[in-house]
């Protein structure tokens, strides 16, 4: 039995449930505090790549460019672990943690991934990075469920 998938939008969820949008925006604002804008966009893009959220990828790659993320980083982000020194240690730690949170399995976030991030960030920053990864995953899942598509330009 095969499934047929379409890309037609399903529900304009933010119109039908505006309080959801408001709550998600509040969570996004809270998770963004004290996180470098470039790093924040890398986190959002990487989770959105894994979750295949075209709407979020479109938005956050544009935002990343505005915040000065290089084309080389954007071009290699999907393979950041193999990209040599293109990404610094804080970015690599945040991306590893983002992937572990996004692909969360029965064993949770591996100790080595968490410890790497804990060594790279203050407790405050680590909490914000975790919250940012959780928040973009929530946005991705909402948009995937209702098939929010990026606008054509």
Structural commentary:
With 153 residues, the chain is mainly alpha-helical. The chain has a single domain, classed as AhpD-like, CATH 1.20.1290. It is 66% helix and 0% strand. The protein has 8 helices and no strands. Helix 2 packs antiparallel against helix 8 and helix 3 packs parallel to helix 6. Keywords: Oxidoreductase, Peroxidase.
Topology:
Blueprint: H1 13-16, H2 18-32, H3 37-51, H4 54-66, H5 71-76, H6 89-102, H7 111-120, H8 123-146
Helix pairs in contact: 2-8, 3-4, 3-6, 3-8, 6-7, 6-8
The top-level CATH class is Mainly Alpha
Spatial shape = globular
Per DSSP, what share of the residues sits in E-state strands of 2 or more residues? under 5%
Helix content: 55-70%
Keywords: Oxidoreductase, Peroxidase
Protein name: Alkylhydroperoxidase AhpD family core domain protein
Pfam family, one: CMD
Domain Carboxymuconolactone decarboxylase-like: 18-99
Which terms would index this structure?
66% helix, AhpD-like, AhpD_core, peroxiredoxin activity, 8 helices, 153 residues, single chain
Can you describe this structure in just a few lines?
This protein is mainly α and 153 residues long. Helices cover 66% and strands 0% of the residues.
């Amino acid at each position: 039995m095969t499934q047929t998938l379409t890309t037609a939008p399903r529900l304009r969820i933010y119109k039908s449930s505006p309080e959801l949008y408001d709550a998600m925006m509040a969570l996004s604002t809270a998770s963004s505090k004290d996180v470098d804008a470039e790093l924040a966009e890398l986190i959002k893009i990487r989770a959105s790549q894994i979750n295949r959220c075209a709407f979020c990828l479109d938005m956050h790659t544009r935002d990343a460019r505005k915040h000065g993320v290089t084309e080389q980083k954007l071009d290699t982000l999907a393979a950041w672990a193999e990209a040599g020194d293109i990404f610094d240690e804080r970015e690599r730690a945040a991306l590893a943690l983002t992937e572990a949170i996004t692909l969360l399995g029965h064993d949770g976030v591996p100790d080595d991934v968490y410890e790497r991030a804990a060594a790279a960030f203050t407790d405050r920053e680590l909490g914000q990075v975790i919250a940012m990864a959780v928040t973009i995953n929530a946005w991705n899942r909402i948009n995937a469920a209702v098939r929010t598509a990026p606008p054509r330009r």
